Amino acid sequence: MQKTTLLHNITPEQLKDEILEGVEKRFNKLTEHFQPKEPTEYLTRNEVKDLLKVDLSTIHNWTKKGKLKSYGIGKRVYYKRNEVEKAIIPLK
Questions:
Q1: Which domain holds residue 73?
Q2: Measuring CA to CA, which residue among 26, 40, 52 is closest to residue 78?
Q3: pLDDT for 18-58, tens place per residue?
């Protein structure tokens, strides 16, 4: 069984506009879910210290306690900026 659609009182220009509008709405819905991925920004211990306005010993203690997660290459220590920002929690 074949489906047939009948169009009454619509010009070809109106049909084109309707199709384009439908495609644009569908495209906008799809692109909402596919945002480009932000590159990870890594901060040194000194940059985290300056960002949070604390001492290096505080950064060291927070890392040992697991409040901040550190990453390393060789002897260098880094922190992911988004994880540092997520570690800041709202106070009650």
A1: 42-87
A2: 40
A3: 889 988 888 888 777 777 778 899 999 999 999 999 999 99
Q: For residue 10, which of 25, 23, 2, 19 has the smallest C-alpha distance?
A: 19
The C-alpha atoms of residue 43 and residue 23 are separated, in whole angstroms, by 43
Residue 30 belongs to some domain of the structure: no
Number of domains comprising the chain: 1
Q: Is 79 exposed, middle or buried (0-12, 13-18, 19+ CB in 10 A)?
A: buried
Whole-model pTM above 0.85? no
Tell whether 19 is covered by a domain: no
